[in-house]
Design a protein that fits this description.
By secondary structure, the protein is mainly α. Helices cover 66% and strands 1% of the residues. This is Protein PRD1 isoform X3.
Length: 1167
C-alpha cells in the first residue's frame, strides 16, 4: 500500500475526462494486488484497498500506522473523483475491515477516526439516495454484538458508539437487518450488568434505538430484568449523557406498560436475593439523581418519564403515594423554583404534580411547602391564551388553599387575587378567553380565599367588586353558549356579599391582641400563661424560619415589656431552659435588626435581665436552636463574655480527642461550624473568647480541658481557614507561648501533639501579611527547634518530630512573603537542627540502591521527605531574608568549598537521592535541585563568576538529570529537564562545560524522540501535553544551535510544518510558544510557517480574552483540601502543593509568552 505525500504541492486541475482516466488507470501495488483495488489520489499517490484493509483489521498493526492510513483515506475522500470511484465500486469492500478494526484496537483516537469515516461514508451514500451502505454496516456490527463468543471489554465501547450512530440512519424495520435479534438483545442486556458506566451508557442508547424502530415489543421477554438493570444504572450514574439514554429507554418501557410492580416475577426468573427492593421503590430512588441534574434536558426527560409512569394503568394510588413519600414532590417543586415558572419545565412539572396529587394526604403536606413556587407559574400561564396546564395550575392552588387553610401567607394571597381578577377582567373584555373548567376553578379559588382565615388581604374586597361589576352581565350575555359560567359567577357574587358584610376584616386585631396579651402579667392565671407561652413559641418558630409575623420594632417593644413585667418570675427559682432559649433568640434577633437599622431604641433594663438569664440559668447554647442573627448579636456583647466562655467550653468538651463530635449533633444546633463561622467573620468576640479561655485554662493547668479547647481550635481552622487570621490578630501566638513555657505543669504527649496540629493549621491557613514578627511566634519557634536538637539518627524521629519539621517549613515559607522573618532566622542558623538534618541526609545517601525501599510508608522515608521539604523552604527563605550572605556555589560540595553554615544540602547528595530514592523522595529532591540551580544561575549571571566544580563532577550531575528526563512522574521529569536546560545555559560562561555536553549523545536522542513524537500527522490534540518535559531541553539546545549543528537536521522544514499543523488553541502551552520563539530566534522558521503560527497564536489570544477565567481556588478551598493535618501524608501533600504554587520556576503564562513571541517577530521584521 502506497500513500502519496500530503506535503506535496497541489497539482494543477486537469480536464474532467483526464482526471477520470487517471483515477481508473490500472496499476498494481507493491504487493501485487490487482489494479482494480488501487485508487489514485490527486497528489499522485495510490491507495490499495486490500493493503489498507489488511492493515487496519490486523490487531498487531502499530497504532501509528493505522492512524496514518485512516487519515490518508479521510483526505482522499475529500477529493470528488476519488470519492465517486470509491462509492461506485468499493464502498462495501471496506465494511468488514472497518468493523474488525473497531473490535481490534483499544485506542480512542483510532476509534474516533473510524467512527468519523463511517459517518462520512454513510452521509455520502445517503446523499446519493443509497442507504445500503449504512445497512451493511448495521448488519455487520449486529453480527459482532450478537455473537455467543462476545466478551465485554472497554474496546466494545467504541463499537457500541459507532453502532448507535449507525442506528440513526435507519429508523424503521431495523430488525430485518439483524440475523440474531435474540442474541443481540441478550448480549446487550447482559452488558448492563457490567461496572463500566461508559459501556452501560452506550448500551442504553442502542436499546432505545432498537425499541423505537418497530411496533413489536422486542424487549418484552427481557423484562423485568431490563427494567431493574436500567433503574439501577440510572440510580448509580452521575453522567448526564448516561442518564439521558437511560431515561429515554425507560420512557419507551413505560409507554408499553413494563414499569409495573413485577418484583415477584423478577425474583422467579433471575433468582435474585429476596431482599431486592420493589420496582416502585427502585424507580423513586433512581429518578432523584436526574431530577437534581444541572442539565435541563435531563430534568425535562425525567419529568416526562414520571408522567408516562403515572399515566399508565399499572400506577395505582399506592405507587403514587410511595413516590410522594420518597419526596419526589419536593424535587419537582425545586425544579419549578429554578425554572422561574417558565416553559417547558414548568409545564411538565405541573403535569407531574397534578398526577402526584392523587395521593391526597401525603401530597397536601408537601403542596403547602411548595405553594410559593406555583405563583410564578400561574403568572406565566395566565399570559398565554388557553395554556395546556392553566387549569391544572389553578387546581393545585385551589387544593392548597382549601385543604390547608391559613398556611398560605398574606402576600401570596394578595398576589394570587390580583392575577385571578386580572384573568377574569381580560375574559370579560375579550382580550383572552377562559375555558369553562378554568373559569370555574378561578371562581372557586376566590370563594375559598374569602372563606379562609387568611381573608384579611388588602384590596381584596375592592378587586373582587371591580370584577363582579362586569362579570355577571357578561355571563348573562353568553348564557346560551356557556350556561355554567353564570352559575359560578352568581356563586362568587353570593359569597362576596357575605364577605363584604362581615366587618371583622375591617379592623385587624391580631397585632394589637398579641401585644396586649404579652404585656399582661400572668401571675396565677394559667390560661394567660399558656397563651403567653404559645405566643413566645410562635414568635420563636417564625424567627427561626425568617417568617416576619409583625414589625420587629413592635415585637421588641412587646417583648421588653413582657420581660420587665415578668422579671421576678424569670429570675427567681429555676426558669425553664427552653423559655430562656426562646427569649434569648427572639430578643437577640430583634436587637440585631435594631443595630442594623440604627433606628429602634431599646430598654437597658430589659437587656440586663436577659444577660442575667444567660449568666445564671441552666441554659445550654449547644443544644439550643438559635437564629444566626441572634447568635451574632450575642457574641458581640462584651457584658456576657464570661458566660459565653463557659458555653463555648461545654461545646469543646463535647468534641473527642480527634476534634470530632462524639455524639450526633443536629445541624440546626450550635456546634463547631457555627463558632468557626463567627470567628471567620470577625467583628465579634468569638476569637477573643476562645483565646482567653485557652489562656485561663493554661493558668489553671487543667490538661483535659486544654486538650479539648486546642482540638476545637484546630477543628474551626480546618472548617474555615480564614478564621486563622482572626485568631492570629487576637493573640493566639501568646496563648501557645504560655502553653509551651508553662513550667508549673507537665503535659502529656497527646496534648503536645494537639498543640502541634493547631500550630500547623494556623500557619497553613494564615496569610503571611498577618503573621508579623512578634515575640510570641519567635518564642514558639525557639521551643520547636529545641525539640529537634538531640536527634541524630533518622529512625529516632517520632511523628511529633516530623510534624515539627513541617511546621518549621511553613515558618520558612511565610518568610518568603515577608512574615515571621526573625522566627525564620532562628530556624535557618540553629546549628543543632542543621546538624540533625545533615545526619539524616548522610544516612539516607549512604544507603545507595537500598534507599528505594524507604518509601513514604516507612519512618525513614517520611523523615527524608520532610527533611527535604525543610531544605527546600530553607533555600527559598535564605534568598528572601539574607540574599547578600548566601554563596550558592558552596552547595556544590567541592573539597575547596566552604562547608554549609545553615540548613542545606549539597548538589551531589541531591543527585544521589534523585538516582536511588523512592518516587516521593525523587519528587521533592527534584524541586530542591531546581531551586538550587535557579539560585546558582542567578548568582553566576549577576556576579559573572565561573562554576567552581570539576568536569567529572558536572558530568555526573548531567548523567543523573538526563536519565530522569524520561521519568514516569511528569513533575520529576519536568524539574530535571529544567535543571538540564540551565546547565546548557552555563555553557556560555565556561567552554569546558560545553565540551562535556557535546560528547554525550543522550540529549540528542531526547530531542530526536520528542521531535518525532509531536510531528506525527493527525496527532491527538492532547498528545502534545504529555511530551512537556523534553521541550525545555530542546529549547535550551536551540539557543546553542550554532554549537550543535545536528539541531538543523532534526528540525527541518517538514518536521516544523508537521508540529505547527498539530498545534491548536486547545493544546497550546507556554512551553510550546517558548519553543517556537527559540525556533524564530534561531532562524529555523520560514515565512509560511510564521504565517501559520501567527494565525494560531492570534486565535488563541482572542479566545483567552473572551473566555471567562475559571478562577483559582480560594485559600479556604485549598485549606479544606488538606484539612486532615493529623495525617503526615496529607501534611506532605500540602507542603508539595505550596512548592508547586510558589516554586522558583513559575510559568510566565500563555498570554505573556505569546506577547514575547510577537515582540521577537517584530524585532526580526525590523532587522
Amino acid at each position: 500500500m502506497f500513500f502519496g505525500d500530503s506535503q506535496d504541492p497541489d497539482l494543477e486541475p486537469a480536464e474532467e475526462e483526464d482526471d477520470q482516466n487517471r483515477y481508473n488507470s490500472p496499476q498494481s501495488c507493491s504487493h501485487g494486488h490487482r489494479s482494480s483495488l488501487c485508487l489514485h489520489t490527486q497528489e499522485g499517490g495510490t491507495i490499495c484497498l486490500l493493503c489498507f484493509s489488511n492493515l487496519i483489521s490486523d490487531p498487531l498493526s502499530p497504532t501509528v500506522h493505522v492512524s496514518y492510513a485512516l487519515s490518508q483515506l479521510s483526505q482522499a475522500l475529500a477529493q470528488p473523483p476519488f470519492l465517486r470511484t470509491f462509492l461506485t465500486f468499493h464502498s462495501h469492500f471496506i465494511v468488514s475491515p472497518f468493523v474488525a478494526a473497531l473490535c481490534c484496537f483499544d485506542d480512542e483516537p483510532i476509534a474516533r477516526q473510524l467512527t468519523d469515516l463511517v459517518r462520512q461514508l454513510c452521509d455520502f451514500s445517503a446523499a446519493d439516495g443509497d442507504g445500503s451502505l449504512s445497512e451493511d454496516f448495521i448488519a455487520r456490527v449486529s453480527d459482532r454484538l450478537s455473537s455467543g463468543a462476545l466478551a465485554w471489554s472497554r474496546r466494545q465501547v467504541y463499537m457500541l458508539h459507532c453502532y448507535g450512530m449507525l442506528l440513526n440512519y435507519r429508523t424503521k424495520n431495523l430488525h430485518d437487518l439483524i440475523k440474531k435479534n435474540d442474541g443481540l438483545l441478550s448480549n446487550l442486556v447482559a452488558g448492563l450488568e457490567l461496572p463500566s458506566e461508559e459501556i452501560r451508557g452506550e448500551i442504553l442508547f442502542v436499546l432505545y434505538k432498537l425499541s423505537t424502530s418497530t411496533e413489536i415489543d422486542v424487549l418484552s421477554e427481557f423484562c423485568p430484568k431490563l427494567v431493574y438493570l436500567s433503574l439501577e444504572a440510572l440510580m448509580k450514574t452521575q453522567n448526564d449523557d448516561v442518564r439521558l439514554n437511560c431515561v429515554a429507554l425507560l420512557t419507551v418501557l413505560a409507554q408499553r406498560g413494563f414499569l409495573g410492580n413485577e418484583h415477584a416475577k423478577y425474583l422467579k426468573f433471575n433468582e435474585k436475593d429476596q431482599g431486592e427492593p420493589p420496582l416502585n421503590t427502585l424507580f423513586a430512588e433512581a429518578i432523584k439523581g436526574p431530577l437534581l441534574s444541572s442539565d435541563r434536558e435531563v430534568q425535562l426527560s425525567t419529568l416526562e418519564l414520571i408522567i408516562r409512569y403515572l399515566s399508565s394503568q399499572v400506577a395505582s394510588i399506592k405507587e403514587i403515594q410511595l413516590l410522594v413519600e420518597e419526596n419526589i414532590v419536593d424535587y419537582v417543586f425545586e425544579i419549578v423554583r429554578f425554572s422561574e415558572g417558565k416553559d417547558p419545565l414548568a409545564k411538565v412539572c405541573v403535569q407531574a404534580l397534578d398526577l402526584l396529587s392523587r395521593a391526597e394526604q401525603p401530597f397536601n403536606q408537601r403542596l403547602a411547602v411548595g405553594f410559593a413556587t406555583l405563583i410564578p407559574v400561574l403568572r406565566h400561564v395566565a399570559e398565554v391564551p388557553f395554556h395546556p396546564v392553566h387549569n391544572q395550575t389553578l387546581t393545585l392552588i385551589w387544593k392548597c388553599i382549601s385543604r390547608c387553610p391559613g398556611v398560605v401567607s398574606a402576600s401570596h394571597i394578595e398576589e394570587l387575587v390580583l392575577i385571578l381578577t386580572s384573568m377574569l377582567l381580560r375574559n370579560v373584555n375579550g382580550e383572552m378567553g377562559l375555558l369553562p373548567d378554568t373559569f370555574a376553578t378561578t371562581c372557586s379559588i376566590l370563594v375559598t380565599v374569602m372563606k379562609s382565615p387568611s381573608h384579611r388581604v388588602p384590596h381584596l374586597a375592592r378587586s373582587v367588586r371591580e370584577v363582579l361589576e362586569h362579570l355577571v352581565s357578561f355571563c348573562l350575555s353568553t348564557f346560551e353558549a356557556q350556561p355554567t359560567q353564570l352559575l359560578h359567577s352568581l356563586y362568587l357574587l353570593k359569597e362576596f356579599y357575605v364577605y363584604s358584610h362581615d366587618n371583622s376584616f375591617i379592623d385587624d386585631p391580631t397585632t394589637k391582641d398579641l401585644q396586649n396579651c404579652v404585656l399582661e402579667k400572668s401571675s396565677n392565671d394559667l390560661e394567660l400563661s399558656s397563651c403567653q407561652s404559645a405566643i413566645l413559641l410562635l414568635l420563636y418558630t417564625s424567627s427561626l424560619h425568617d417568617d416576619r409575623l409583625a414589625d420587629e420594632k413592635m415585637v421588641l417593644a412587646s417583648l421588653e415589656q413582657y420581660i420587665l413585667v415578668s422579671n421576678s418570675g424569670l429570675l427567681c427559682g429555676y426558669p425553664d431552659p427552653f423559655t430562656v432559649t426562646q427569649l434569648v433568640n427572639i430578643y437577640g434577633f430583634c436587637r440585631f435588626v435594631a443595630d442594623t437599622s440604627c433606628q429602634i431604641s431599646y430598654s437597658p433594663e430589659a437587656e440586663r435581665i436577659v444577660f442575667q438569664l444567660v449568666t445564671e440559668s441552666e441554659w445550654d447554647l449547644h443544644s439550643s436552636r438559635i437564629h444566626w442573627s441572634s447568635l451574632k448579636w450575642l457574641f458581640k456583647q462584651e457584658r456576657i463574655r464570661n458566660p459565653l466562655c463557659y458555653q463555648v467550653l461545654k461545646i469543646c468538651q463535647l468534641l473527642g480527642a480527634n476534634g470530632t463530635a462524639t455524639a450526633t449533633i443536629h445541624n440546626q444546633f450550635i456546634g463547631a461550624r457555627e463558632i468557626a463561622k463567627l470567628v471567620a467573620e470577625g467583628e465579634n468576640y468569638a476569637a477573643i473568647l476562645l483565646i482567653r479561655l485557652l489562656e485561663q485554662l493554661v493558668e489553671e493547668g487543667v490538661e483535659h480541658e486544654i486538650s479539648s479547647v486546642v482540638n476545637f481550635l484546630s477543628t474551626i481552622v480546618n472548617i474555615f481557614p480564614s478564621s486563622a487570621d482572626q485568631l492570629r490578630v487576637h493573640g493566639i501566638g501568646n496563648a501557645i507561648k504560655l502553653l509551651y513555657y508553662d513550667t508549673n505543669n507537665s503535659y502529656s504527649k497527646q496534648t503536645f501533639k494537639a498543640v502541634l496540629l493547631l500550630v500547623f493549621s494556623i500557619l497553613r491557613s494564615s496569610h503571611s501579611g498577618i503573621l508579623s514578627d512578634d515575640e510570641a511566634w519567635l518564642a514558639v519557634t525557639v521551643k520547636l527547634v529545641d525539640c529537634l536538637s538531640p536527634i541524630d539518627i533518622a529512625d529516632r524521629w517520632t511523628p511529633e518530630n516530623l510534624l515539627v519539621l513541617a511546621i518549621l517549613s511553613l515558618i520558612l515559607h511565610h518568610s518568603t512573603n515577608g512574615g515571621l522573618i526573625e522566627a525564620s532566622k532562628s530556624v535557618l542558623f540553629h546549628t543543632p537542627v542543621a546538624s540533625a538534618i545533615k545526619s539524616v541526609l548522610h544516612e539516607a545517601c549512604s544507603k545507595g540502591p537500598a534507599l528505594i525501599d524507604d518509601h513514604e510508608g516507612t519512618n525513614m522515608g517520611k523523615t527524608v521527605i520532610l527533611v527535604l521539604f525543610l531544605v527546600y523552604f530553607s533555600m527559598r527563605s535564605l534568598q528572601a531574608v539574607l540574599p547578600e550572605v548566601v554563596n550558592w556555589q558552596n552547595n556544590l560540595g567541592q573539597s575547596n568549598g566552604t562547608p554549609l553554615s545553615s540548613i542545606g544540602i549539597t548538589c551531589h547528595d541531591l543527585c544521589r537521592l534523585l538516582h536511588f530514592g523512592s518516587a516521593s523522595v525523587k519528587l521533592v529532591a527534584s524541586y530542591c535541585l531546581l531551586e538550587l540551580f535557579t539560585r546558582l544561575s542567578e548568582q553566576r549571571t549577576s556576579k559573572q563568576e565561573e562554576l567552581r566544580c570539576t568536569t567529572n563532577y558536572l558530568m555526573s550531575v548531567i548523567a543523573t538529570l538526563e536519565g530522569l528526563v524520561v521519568y514516569g512522574d511528569h513533575r520529576v521529569a519536568t524539574n530535571c529537564s529544567l535543571c538540564l536546560s540551565m546547565v546548557l545555559g552555563w555553557k556560555q560562561m565556561n567552554m569546558q562545560e560545553a565540551r562535556v555536553i557535546v560528547k554525550n549523545k543522550w540529549c540528542r536522542i531526547i530531542v530526536e524522540e520528542w521531535a518525532a513524537s509531536i510531528s506525527l500527522p493527525s496527532l491527538a490534540p492532547n498528545a502534545i501535553i504529555g511530551h512537556k518535559p523534553a521541550i525545555y531541553v530542546t529549547a535550551a539546545f536551540l539557543k546553542l544551535q550554532k554549537d550543535f549543528v545536528w539541531m538543523r537536521s532534526i528540525f527541518d522544514k517538514a518536521c516544523i510544518s508537521s508540529i505547527i499543523q498539530n498545534v491548536t488553541t486547545s493544546n497550546l502551552s507556554p512551553e510550546m510558544v517558548s519553543f517556537f520563539r527559540e525556533l524564530l530566534n534561531s532562524e529555523f522558521l520560514q515565512a509560511d510557517q510564521i504565517a501559520s503560527l501567527n494565525s494560531v497564536l492570534q486565535a488563541c489570544r482572542k479566545q483567552m480574552y473572551y473566555e471567562n477565567d475559571g478562577g483559582a481556588q480560594t485559600e479556604e478551598e485549598i485549606g479544606n483540601l488538606f484539612a486532615n493535618v493529623d495525617d503526615l501524608g496529607d501534611v506532605c501533600k500540602y507542603l508539595l502543593h505550596l512548592i508547586m504554587q510558589s516554586g522558583s520556576h513559575e510559568n510566565k503564562g500563555l498570554l505573556n509568552e505569546i506577547e514575547l513571541f510577537f515582540r521577537a517577530l517584530a524585532v526580526k521584521d525590523h532587522n
